[in-house]
Amino acid sequence: MIAPVWSSLLLIYFAEASSFSDDLVYVYISGEVWTDECLGAGTNAEILLWLGTLDIKGNLTRLDGDINLNEQRSISAHSITHFAPKRVALDAREVEQCVEWGHDYCFPHADVLFVHFNGSSEFMPLWVPVHFIVRIEYEYKGVRYDFTTDHPMTHQCRGGLEEGWYQIGPRHGMFISLGKRKPEVGDWIRDWV
């Protein structure tokens, strides 16, 4: 087994702007993906990140993001990449009704992360993500909210990840292969390995 070498920080940056209008509430997501190098190679495989919001029973209530981690150029274990601005727009009336009903999942959270590796390239990533830090910011009814969630992972270098979906969290260190099926709103998300 090759021991991982601490390597890089990939930034996901989303622009700031006014967060509330009469019809929409804008949520801004930023974060960091820390990676460990396994064998020092990069990849052109598509890597997508989704944020999952869970209710108290562990059911997936929201799935936000569709953030392409290599949208602008291929990523490798030795790079810092800045991504194009992106925001999530929510219907203000739906948010208000959700809040009035007392739900705690009206806005995107990063309770659990889902990563999709598309192995369309000649080789799969020879680095693995080991730590995601996700920051969610929004303003609602004059109050600014700012949440940061850490998702460290336990995953040994195996020379890369196979094509498919992976669940990160909700427990710290949790990393599960989900195969080819994308999680959907309404799914129960397990919190044990």
TrEMBL record:
Q: Which domain of life is it from?
A: Eukaryota
Q: Where is the signal peptide?
A: 1-17
Q: Which UniProt keywords apply?
A: Signal
What is the protein's name according to its record?
Lipase domain-containing protein
Q: Supply the source organism for this entry.
A: Steinernema glaseri
